[in-house]
Amino acid sequence: MNIRSECDSDLAAINDLVYTAFLNHPQHAPGALPKEHTIVNNLRAAGALFVSLVAEDNGVIIGHIAMSEVLIDGRSDGWYGGGPLAVHPSRQRQGIGSSLVDRGIQALRERGARGVALVGDPKYYGRFGFGPAPELVLPGVPPEYFLVLPLELPMPAGSVSFHAAFGC
Ligand SMILES: CC(C)(COP(=O)(O)OP(=O)(O)OC[C@H]1O[C@@H](n2cnc3c(N)ncnc32)[C@H](O)[C@@H]1OP(=O)(O)O)[C@@H](O)C(=O)NCCC(=O)NCCS
Fold this sequence. Notes:
The structure is a single chain. By secondary structure, this protein is of the alpha+beta class. It is about 25% helix and about 30% strand. It has helices at about 10-20, 35-45, 95-110, 120-125, and strands spanning about 1-5, 50-55, 60-70, 75-85, 115-120, 135, 145-150, 160. Helix 1 (about 10-20) packs antiparallel against helix 2 (about 35-45). The longest helix is centred in the middle third of the chain and has 15 residues, at about 95-110. The relative contact order is 0.17. Bound molecules: coenzyme A.
């Protein structure tokens, strides 16, 4: 298994993978179709896909993580939003998601990011150092599921907004 940045020939496979991973997701309304693949496509189309890593095994894309800039009180402050994160259902619980998160954080560090924020399960993301932070809020999201990982101090404070692609 190899983790690398996306290239143009991966785009259809990433789309299919993200769709498949989120199909029948427990946090979706029953019968609702996934929209996470559209988020990735719209981020890319907007030039906002800051980090896009694929996990590839024998030429097959089996995992993907996206990172895009978030704003804090409407300002750019070097913080990035993690996700969507997707691993093909047939390859989950083999450490691929963890490798993608680790490498995504590494890519952000290398590019000078000051922190990462995401919405996710604290039990899963806690292992990477993510946790709640009272300084930052994501309107409409319960604080226990809005998790942050500062890469540089001091911590900023304010209201976080993800790219408009997440509202699709
Ligand atoms: C969440 C996801 C990316 C994890 O990928 P993965 O490759 O299976 O994860 P890993 O193998 O690195 O880690 C597996 C561990 O995470 C735990 N885990 C996986 N999904 C979890 C979840 N939603 N909540 C809590 N824990 C979870 C497993 O219990 C396992 O724990 P263990 O190591 O103690 O047994 C994958 O299950 C997936 O694509 N799910 C559908 C899409 C999704 O929910 N994405 C994340 C939200 S943005």
